[in-house]
Write a structure and sequence with these properties.
22% helix, 152 residues, five-stranded mixed beta sheet, 3 helices, alpha/beta, two-stranded parallel ribbon
């Protein structure tokens, strides 16, 4: 399936999705409330068959926090990137996709640990690299480490 057809199929499922310019991959910004349902349909719809979540990454854009999902269909050999964003820096949260792609479980824990982004309904959301009593989220742009003098 080419990117134009893929884009049309995804927009049928979530008409509110916005196309983002990307020379390498079809990239869509999706409303956070629609992410989980879209992910299920992208995996379970035979002509889409996104059976492999390659990675899931947190991003700090300054005013917004985001999660970026790179997905692949091994069967059809097509790929798509989805993004969700929030302006809520004090309590950012998105729905988990770990019930859809098991590999998301650890990616979401890492994103929680480094960015403080919670994933609703995650089966085991806790820090994965840092100690439980660690203060702050080291990959956020507003993070200040007084001991090691790390600032972004």
């Amino acid at each position: 399936m080419d990117n134009e057809t893929l884009k049309a199929r995804i927009l049928e499922i979530v008409p509110e999705a916005q196309l983002e310019e990307n020379k390498q991959y079809l990239t869509l910004l999706v409303p956070a409330a629609k992410l989980h349902d879209l992910a299920i349909k992208m995996k379970d719809t035979p002509e889409l068959a996104f059976d492999y979540l390659i990675c899931l990454s947190g991003v700090d854009y300054g005013k917004q926090l985001a999660v970026v999902y790179h997905m692949n269909s091994i069967l059809h050999k097509h790929m798509v990137v989805l993004k969700v964003k929030t302006d809520d820096r004090s309590d950012p949260a998105f729905d988990t996709v770990s019930d859809i792609w098991r590999t998301a479980e650890f990616h979401e824990r890492e994103t929680y640990d480094m960015f403080g982004i919670r994933f609703n309904n995650h089966p085991d959301l806790r820090r994965i690299f840092l100690e439980e009593d660690w203060k702050g989220y080291p990959l956020r742009k507003d993070y200040v480490d007084e001991v090691n003098i790390v600032e972004f």
